[in-house]
Write a structure and sequence with these properties.
Strand order of the largest sheet: 1-2-3-4-5-7-8-11
Strand content: over 45%
Number of strands: 11
Order of helices and strands: HEEEEEEEEEEE
Number of domains: 1
Shape: elongated
Structural class: mainly beta
Number of helices: 1
Distance between the termini: 34 Å
Radius of gyration: 26 Å
Largest sheet: 8 strands, antiparallel, barrel
Length: 248
Protein backbone atom coordinates (compact mmCIF):
# COMPACT_ATOMS: atom_id res chain seq x y z
CA UNK A 1 0.00 0.00 0.00
CA UNK A 2 2.84 2.39 0.91
CA UNK A 3 4.53 1.67 -2.42
CA UNK A 4 1.31 2.40 -4.30
CA UNK A 5 0.87 5.73 -2.47
CA UNK A 6 4.51 6.73 -3.01
CA UNK A 7 4.35 5.74 -6.69
CA UNK A 8 1.18 7.80 -7.17
CA UNK A 9 2.76 10.80 -5.43
CA UNK A 10 5.84 10.62 -7.68
CA UNK A 11 3.59 10.33 -10.71
CA UNK A 12 1.51 13.38 -9.77
CA UNK A 13 4.68 15.39 -9.06
CA UNK A 14 6.06 14.50 -12.50
CA UNK A 15 2.79 15.53 -14.16
CA UNK A 16 2.70 18.84 -12.27
CA UNK A 17 6.28 19.60 -13.35
CA UNK A 18 5.77 18.73 -17.01
CA UNK A 19 2.51 20.67 -17.30
CA UNK A 20 4.31 23.78 -16.07
CA UNK A 21 6.67 23.63 -19.05
CA UNK A 22 6.10 24.38 -22.74
CA UNK A 23 2.68 25.49 -23.97
CA UNK A 24 2.50 23.54 -27.24
CA UNK A 25 0.00 20.70 -27.62
CA UNK A 26 1.57 17.28 -27.07
CA UNK A 27 -1.50 15.14 -27.67
CA UNK A 28 -1.56 12.59 -30.52
CA UNK A 29 -3.28 13.35 -33.82
CA UNK A 30 -5.73 11.14 -35.70
CA UNK A 31 -4.28 7.83 -37.00
CA UNK A 32 -1.51 7.82 -34.35
CA UNK A 33 -0.49 4.46 -32.87
CA UNK A 34 0.33 3.75 -29.24
CA UNK A 35 1.96 0.97 -27.19
CA UNK A 36 2.09 0.74 -23.38
CA UNK A 37 4.13 -0.86 -20.58
CA UNK A 38 3.66 -0.89 -16.80
CA UNK A 39 6.02 1.38 -14.84
CA UNK A 40 6.64 0.69 -11.11
CA UNK A 41 9.60 2.94 -10.13
CA UNK A 42 10.03 1.57 -6.58
CA UNK A 43 9.93 -2.08 -7.64
CA UNK A 44 12.97 -4.30 -8.24
CA UNK A 45 11.77 -4.58 -11.86
CA UNK A 46 10.46 -1.07 -12.65
CA UNK A 47 9.43 -1.90 -16.24
CA UNK A 48 6.85 -4.71 -16.45
CA UNK A 49 4.80 -6.25 -19.23
CA UNK A 50 1.75 -8.25 -18.14
CA UNK A 51 0.15 -7.93 -21.56
CA UNK A 52 0.59 -5.74 -24.64
CA UNK A 53 -1.83 -2.81 -24.92
CA UNK A 54 -2.20 -1.12 -28.29
CA UNK A 55 -4.23 1.99 -29.13
CA UNK A 56 -5.22 3.39 -32.49
CA UNK A 57 -6.44 6.99 -32.43
CA UNK A 58 -9.40 7.23 -34.80
CA UNK A 59 -9.46 11.00 -34.26
CA UNK A 60 -7.88 13.45 -31.84
CA UNK A 61 -10.50 12.55 -29.22
CA UNK A 62 -11.40 8.87 -29.88
CA UNK A 63 -9.28 5.73 -29.78
CA UNK A 64 -9.67 1.99 -30.23
CA UNK A 65 -7.71 -0.08 -27.71
CA UNK A 66 -6.68 -3.73 -27.65
CA UNK A 67 -4.85 -5.63 -24.94
CA UNK A 68 -3.37 -9.05 -25.78
CA UNK A 69 -1.62 -11.42 -23.41
CA UNK A 70 -0.34 -14.95 -24.02
CA UNK A 71 1.66 -17.01 -21.53
CA UNK A 72 3.11 -20.51 -21.78
CA UNK A 73 5.21 -22.44 -19.28
CA UNK A 74 6.67 -25.93 -19.34
CA UNK A 75 8.35 -27.59 -16.37
CA UNK A 76 10.19 -30.92 -16.33
CA UNK A 77 12.09 -32.78 -13.63
CA UNK A 78 13.63 -36.25 -13.24
CA UNK A 79 12.53 -38.16 -10.13
CA UNK A 80 14.34 -41.15 -8.60
CA UNK A 81 12.41 -43.45 -6.25
CA UNK A 82 13.93 -45.95 -3.80
CA UNK A 83 12.35 -49.35 -3.12
CA UNK A 84 11.82 -50.99 0.26
CA UNK A 85 11.61 -54.43 -1.34
CA UNK A 86 15.25 -54.71 -2.31
CA UNK A 87 17.93 -52.48 -0.86
CA UNK A 88 19.41 -50.21 -3.50
CA UNK A 89 16.58 -50.83 -5.98
CA UNK A 90 15.59 -47.57 -7.69
CA UNK A 91 13.28 -46.49 -10.50
CA UNK A 92 13.41 -43.15 -12.26
CA UNK A 93 10.62 -41.31 -13.99
CA UNK A 94 9.78 -37.79 -15.13
CA UNK A 95 7.51 -35.06 -13.80
CA UNK A 96 6.01 -32.65 -16.34
CA UNK A 97 3.66 -29.68 -16.17
CA UNK A 98 2.51 -27.34 -18.95
CA UNK A 99 0.26 -24.29 -18.70
CA UNK A 100 -1.20 -22.07 -21.40
CA UNK A 101 -2.98 -18.81 -20.66
CA UNK A 102 -4.40 -16.05 -22.84
CA UNK A 103 -6.22 -12.73 -22.44
CA UNK A 104 -7.90 -10.42 -25.00
CA UNK A 105 -9.18 -6.95 -24.03
CA UNK A 106 -10.76 -4.90 -26.85
CA UNK A 107 -12.22 -1.50 -25.98
CA UNK A 108 -12.91 2.12 -26.89
CA UNK A 109 -11.86 5.47 -25.36
CA UNK A 110 -13.29 9.00 -25.53
CA UNK A 111 -10.73 11.70 -24.68
CA UNK A 112 -11.66 15.13 -23.33
CA UNK A 113 -10.08 18.57 -23.62
CA UNK A 114 -7.92 18.63 -20.47
CA UNK A 115 -4.77 20.70 -21.01
CA UNK A 116 -1.94 20.81 -23.56
CA UNK A 117 -0.25 17.86 -21.86
CA UNK A 118 -3.08 16.21 -19.91
CA UNK A 119 -5.58 13.99 -21.77
CA UNK A 120 -8.39 12.64 -19.52
CA UNK A 121 -10.62 9.93 -20.97
CA UNK A 122 -13.43 7.49 -20.31
CA UNK A 123 -14.27 4.28 -22.11
CA UNK A 124 -15.05 0.60 -21.83
CA UNK A 125 -13.36 -2.74 -22.50
CA UNK A 126 -14.23 -6.41 -22.69
CA UNK A 127 -12.17 -8.94 -20.76
CA UNK A 128 -11.94 -12.41 -22.35
CA UNK A 129 -9.42 -14.88 -20.91
CA UNK A 130 -8.72 -18.57 -20.43
CA UNK A 131 -6.17 -21.02 -19.06
CA UNK A 132 -5.52 -24.74 -19.51
CA UNK A 133 -2.98 -27.07 -17.93
CA UNK A 134 -1.67 -30.62 -17.89
CA UNK A 135 0.39 -32.21 -15.11
CA UNK A 136 1.99 -35.67 -15.01
CA UNK A 137 3.17 -36.83 -11.57
CA UNK A 138 4.95 -40.18 -11.03
CA UNK A 139 5.04 -42.04 -7.69
CA UNK A 140 7.15 -45.06 -6.76
CA UNK A 141 5.22 -48.04 -5.31
CA UNK A 142 6.20 -51.37 -3.84
CA UNK A 143 3.76 -53.83 -5.38
CA UNK A 144 2.38 -56.34 -2.93
CA UNK A 145 0.87 -59.75 -3.42
CA UNK A 146 2.71 -62.20 -5.64
CA UNK A 147 4.39 -59.67 -7.95
CA UNK A 148 6.89 -58.39 -5.39
CA UNK A 149 8.22 -55.66 -7.65
CA UNK A 150 8.83 -51.90 -7.69
CA UNK A 151 6.62 -49.97 -10.09
CA UNK A 152 5.64 -46.42 -11.02
CA UNK A 153 2.12 -45.05 -10.53
CA UNK A 154 1.39 -42.13 -12.88
CA UNK A 155 -1.21 -39.48 -12.10
CA UNK A 156 -2.37 -37.27 -14.96
CA UNK A 157 -4.15 -34.04 -14.04
CA UNK A 158 -5.88 -32.22 -16.89
CA UNK A 159 -7.08 -28.62 -16.57
CA UNK A 160 -6.29 -28.35 -12.86
CA UNK A 161 -6.80 -24.63 -12.25
CA UNK A 162 -8.08 -24.09 -15.80
CA UNK A 163 -10.81 -21.54 -16.48
CA UNK A 164 -12.64 -19.36 -19.00
CA UNK A 165 -13.38 -15.74 -18.02
CA UNK A 166 -15.73 -13.19 -19.57
CA UNK A 167 -16.07 -9.67 -18.22
CA UNK A 168 -16.51 -6.00 -19.04
CA UNK A 169 -15.25 -2.76 -17.47
CA UNK A 170 -16.14 0.91 -17.62
CA UNK A 171 -12.80 2.71 -17.34
CA UNK A 172 -11.57 6.23 -16.63
CA UNK A 173 -8.05 7.59 -16.61
CA UNK A 174 -5.67 10.15 -18.04
CA UNK A 175 -2.42 10.45 -19.98
CA UNK A 176 0.18 13.02 -18.92
CA UNK A 177 2.61 13.74 -21.78
CA UNK A 178 6.24 14.21 -20.71
CA UNK A 179 7.44 14.86 -24.25
CA UNK A 180 5.79 14.92 -27.67
CA UNK A 181 5.60 11.12 -27.97
CA UNK A 182 5.98 9.84 -24.40
CA UNK A 183 3.45 9.87 -21.54
CA UNK A 184 2.68 8.51 -18.09
CA UNK A 185 -0.86 7.58 -17.12
CA UNK A 186 -3.15 5.88 -14.66
CA UNK A 187 -6.53 4.18 -14.94
CA UNK A 188 -9.28 2.70 -12.80
CA UNK A 189 -12.55 1.02 -13.64
CA UNK A 190 -15.73 -0.66 -12.49
CA UNK A 191 -17.02 -3.87 -13.98
CA UNK A 192 -17.88 -7.53 -13.64
CA UNK A 193 -16.28 -10.91 -14.31
CA UNK A 194 -17.88 -14.31 -14.82
CA UNK A 195 -15.45 -17.21 -14.40
CA UNK A 196 -16.26 -20.77 -15.43
CA UNK A 197 -13.63 -23.17 -14.05
CA UNK A 198 -12.69 -26.16 -16.17
CA UNK A 199 -13.64 -29.69 -15.14
CA UNK A 200 -10.62 -31.17 -13.41
CA UNK A 201 -9.93 -34.66 -14.78
CA UNK A 202 -7.46 -36.98 -13.04
CA UNK A 203 -6.49 -40.45 -14.28
CA UNK A 204 -4.12 -42.94 -12.66
CA UNK A 205 -2.22 -45.61 -14.59
CA UNK A 206 -0.18 -48.60 -13.39
CA UNK A 207 2.08 -51.11 -15.18
CA UNK A 208 0.23 -54.15 -16.55
CA UNK A 209 2.00 -56.42 -14.04
CA UNK A 210 0.67 -54.45 -11.07
CA UNK A 211 -1.99 -56.29 -8.97
CA UNK A 212 -5.60 -55.38 -9.69
CA UNK A 213 -6.53 -52.19 -7.91
CA UNK A 214 -9.90 -51.81 -6.23
CA UNK A 215 -11.04 -48.19 -6.75
CA UNK A 216 -11.69 -46.41 -3.43
CA UNK A 217 -15.10 -44.95 -2.63
CA UNK A 218 -15.54 -41.55 -4.24
CA UNK A 219 -15.52 -38.70 -1.73
CA UNK A 220 -16.94 -35.54 -3.35
CA UNK A 221 -15.57 -33.39 -0.52
CA UNK A 222 -16.40 -29.71 -0.23
CA UNK A 223 -16.34 -27.75 -3.52
CA UNK A 224 -13.79 -24.95 -3.68
CA UNK A 225 -15.34 -21.90 -5.47
CA UNK A 226 -11.85 -20.61 -6.34
CA UNK A 227 -11.04 -23.67 -8.47
CA UNK A 228 -14.35 -25.43 -9.23
CA UNK A 229 -17.72 -24.50 -10.62
CA UNK A 230 -18.52 -20.88 -11.45
CA UNK A 231 -17.73 -17.50 -9.93
CA UNK A 232 -18.98 -13.94 -10.49
CA UNK A 233 -17.34 -10.70 -9.31
CA UNK A 234 -18.68 -7.14 -9.51
CA UNK A 235 -16.85 -4.08 -8.27
CA UNK A 236 -14.10 -1.50 -8.82
CA UNK A 237 -10.62 -2.41 -10.08
CA UNK A 238 -7.36 -0.49 -10.19
CA UNK A 239 -3.89 -1.06 -11.63
CA UNK A 240 -1.36 0.22 -9.07
CA UNK A 241 1.33 0.44 -11.76
CA UNK A 242 1.82 3.61 -13.80
CA UNK A 243 1.11 3.24 -17.52
CA UNK A 244 4.16 4.17 -19.59
CA UNK A 245 3.36 4.65 -23.27
CA UNK A 246 4.74 6.13 -26.45
CA UNK A 247 3.16 7.36 -29.68
CA UNK A 248 4.42 6.39 -33.12
Amino acid sequence: MKKAITTTALFLSACTFTMAQEASDFKPAAKANNLELNFVPLNGKPIQLTYIRYRKFLSETTAFRLGIGVSFSSKKADSVFNSNITAGSTVSSGYKKTELGWNIRPGFEKHFEGTNRLSPYMGFELDIAGQSSKEITPTGLDAGGTTDEFVIQTDKNKNKGGFFRLGANVVAGFDCYITKHLYLGTEFGFGFQMVNYSDHKMTTTYPSTYPAVVPPAVDPGNPDPSSQGKEMNIGPNFNSAIRLGYIF
